[in-house]
Amino acid sequence: MTTRKPYYPSKTFDEDLGAFVDMCTVNKWEFPGIPLKSLQDAIAAQRAERASHDALELQYRKQHEAFGAAQAQRYALFACALHASRGLFRSNRAVLAQLARFTGNRGNRRKKAVVGGDAAAGSSPVPSRPLVTP
Predict the structure, then answer these.
(1) Largest distance between two CA atoms of the chain
(2) What are residue 105's phi and psi, to 5 degrees?
């Protein structure tokens, strides 16, 4: 059995649910099989869980930002030490061979798209269009 992704309603769901429950309460609407008390409990639970969710999300964002800043400092320290070691051992091929593994990862860079297609094939960047006569 495959698990389905949960459905997340729009961002205004909290306000929409609250306004609907208020409207039902003011107009004393009752629906078969859906007691008004269950709707009122649903909006209370929604607001409590939303507040908890938002606090947790804020905590994550702060931690993520702090981690990124600390990682940037560690990377700068690493880069300085690596640069210094390459300068210090620039005449020692064995050490430079060991340091060669610490080169930047250039394999993930995207290739630039060729503007105009294959120049050898003579293709133009703009496809030809049939002439329209009035």
Answers:
(1) 88
(2) -80, 100
Calpha distance 58→51 (Å, rounded): 11
Phi, psi of 70 (to 5 degrees): -65, -40
Residue with tokens 């394999």: 107
Positive or negative, the Cα torsion across 114, 119, 123, 125?
positive
Degrees, nearest 5: CA angle 51-56-59: 125
Q: How far apart are CA 12 and CA 58, in angstroms?
A: 19
Helical residues (DSSP H) of the chain, grouped into ranges: 13-27, 36-88, 93-99
Q: How far is the CA of 10 from the CAs of 7, 13, 26, 68, in angstroms?
A: 10, 6, 25, 30
62's tokens: 């702060």
- pLDDT score for 131: 63
Rounded-to-integer distance, Cα 65 and Cα 59, Å: 10
pLDDT tens-digit profile of 30-55?
Answer: 899 999 999 999 999 999 999 999 99
